[in-house]
């Protein structure tokens, strides 16, 4: 890979503003085999282009800002990324500012993952996608050094992976039918509700397919009574569960709904970091773990273990992401009850390859690290 091109692609302003990071990155940017003896970070913005407009309860968009990351140690490169849907509050500027503030060159042993990621987490609050990009790249790097994919390092079996859902957001009936056609290989559909006409959307989908549905209301229902009425209605429509039916602040109302709903209730927007698992025991039936919220795999693994030990269900979700971050999440997928890893198929400009889609399931490659490589010409 042409590293100079990777750096130049990040734009002159970005390079000019890079201090600690880019100085060390430039210093060993030409040889893969060079023994640097410390971690070297590189990154560049990469806008994700959506195949269809993404219409959510409170917004619509056709692109998602992203930042691609490389973490190198002794000539071995791990890949990571940050994806920043606007509602999460991060941006290319905030992520690059955060990454520029890191001094990863202080670490001479990449296996001190806990120490490295604790440092990254301590530099500034929030910045979860930025932190995830380092975590993902570090996992890729360490897996490559160890010569194994992470699902194997964690002792997980690919046979336990569930089919992933494919997201359909509200649109004209023609576009919805088109999306259903595109989703034929998927065994489960995820429907974005919480917008005017959402019952009609379900009716439109049910005209063409009886595949199971997962519903994501994206905080779009305003009262607990409205949410209960919708859950009761959806229970007759072969719906598996409802995600974030009410605004995230409505904790008591969600607990009320959970007691009465015939369908399991999952937390998404309400759920961010590890302590939230205990906070939401008894409020939600399950949690939606996304790497861009959890700050990456290191904490996501702990979340899944804790939630399962508390008898809660676990779902693994994603943002619009390239196959790099999807492959990272896929390493964990044998641990979870529901998988929603379609972020890479929703974009038109994926930068990575290596994932397989078999029988409706997203399967990581039996290759070291995340098992992905950059598509030729997308360096
Ligand atoms: Mg959601």
Describe the structure.
The structure is a single chain. The chain is 36% helix and 20% strand. With 379 residues, the protein is of the alpha/beta class. It has an eight-stranded parallel sheet with strand order 6-7-8-9-10-11-12-13. A three-stranded antiparallel sheet has the order 1-4-5. Helix 9 (198-208) links the parallel strand 7 and strand 8 (213-216). The longest helix is centred in the middle third of the chain and has 19 residues, at 128-146. The model is unreliable at 1-33 (pLDDT under 50). The structure holds magnesium ion. The site of magnesium ion (MG) has 6 residues, from loops.
Overall mean pLDDT: 90
Strand order of the largest sheet: 6-7-8-9-10-11-12-13
Share of β-strand residues: 15-25%
Distinct small molecules bound, one entry per kind: magnesium ion
Global outline: globular
Largest sheet: 8 strands, parallel
In short:
This protein has 379 residues and is an alpha/beta fold.
List the main descriptive attributes of the protein structure presented here.
379 residues; alpha/beta; eight-stranded parallel β-sheet; three-stranded antiparallel β-sheet; 15 helices; 17 strands; disordered N terminus; binds magnesium ion
Strand and helix layout:
Blueprint (H helix, E strand, L loop, with lengths): L2 H6 L3 H6 L2 H8 L12 E6 L2 E8 L4 E5 L1 E8 L2 E8 L8 H9 L12 H11 L4 H19 L3 H4 L11 E4 L4 H10 L5 E5 L5 H11 L4 E4 L7 H12 L3 E5 L7 H10 L4 E3 L7 H5 L6 E4 L1 H4 L2 H13 L3 E4 L6 H10 L5 E2 L12 E2 L2 E3 L2 E3 L9 E2 L5
Helix pairs in contact: 5-6, 8-9, 10-11
This protein binds magnesium ion.
């Amino acid at each position: 890979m042409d590293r100079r091109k990777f750096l130049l692609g990040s734009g002159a302003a970005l390079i000019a503003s890079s201090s600690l990071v880019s100085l060390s990155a430039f210093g060993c940017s030409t040889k893969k085999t060079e023994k640097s003896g410390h971690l070297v970070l590189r990154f560049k913005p990469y806008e994700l282009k959506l195949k269809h407009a993404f219409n959510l309860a409170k917004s619509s968009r056709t692109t998602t800002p992203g930042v691609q990351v490389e973490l190198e140690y002794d000539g071995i490169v791990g890949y990571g990324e940050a994806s920043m849907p606007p509602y999460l509050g991060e941006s290319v500027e905030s992520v690059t500012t955060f990454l520029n503030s890191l001094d990863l060159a202080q670490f001479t042993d990449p296996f001190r993952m806990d120490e490295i990621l604790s440092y990254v987490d301590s530099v500034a609050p929030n910045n979860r996608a930025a932190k995830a990009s380092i975590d993902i790249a570090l996992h890729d790097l360490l897996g490559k050094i160890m010569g194994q994919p992470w699902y194997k390092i964690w002792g997980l079996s690919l046979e336990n992976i569930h089919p992933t859902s494919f997201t359909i957001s509200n649109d004209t009936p023609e576009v919805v039918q088109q999306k259903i056609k595109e989703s034929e290989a998927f065994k489960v559909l995820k429907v974005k509700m919480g917008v005017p006409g959402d019952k009609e959307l379900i009716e439109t989908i049910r005209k063409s397919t009886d595949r199971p549905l997962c519903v994501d209301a994206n905080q779009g229902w305003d009262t607990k009574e409205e949410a209960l009425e919708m859950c009761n209605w959806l229970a007759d429509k072969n719906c598996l569960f409802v995600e974030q039916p009410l605004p995230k602040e409505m904790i008591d109302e969600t607990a009320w709904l959970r007691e009465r709903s015939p369908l399991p209730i999952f937390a998404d927007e309400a759920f961010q970091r590890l302590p939230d698992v205990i906070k939401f025991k008894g409020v939600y039936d399950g949690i939606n773990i996304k790497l861009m919220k959890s700050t990456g795999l290191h904490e996501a693994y702990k979340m899944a273990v804790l939630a399962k030990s508390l008898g809660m269900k676990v779902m693994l979700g994603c943002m619009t992401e390239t196959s790099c971050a999807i492959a990272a999440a896929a390493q964990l997928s044998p641990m979870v009850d529901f998988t929603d890893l379609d972020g890479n198929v929703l974009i038109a400009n994926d930068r990575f390859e290596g994932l397989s889609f078999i029988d409706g399931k997203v399967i990581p490659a039996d290759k070291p690290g995340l098992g992905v490589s950059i598509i030729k010409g997308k360096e």
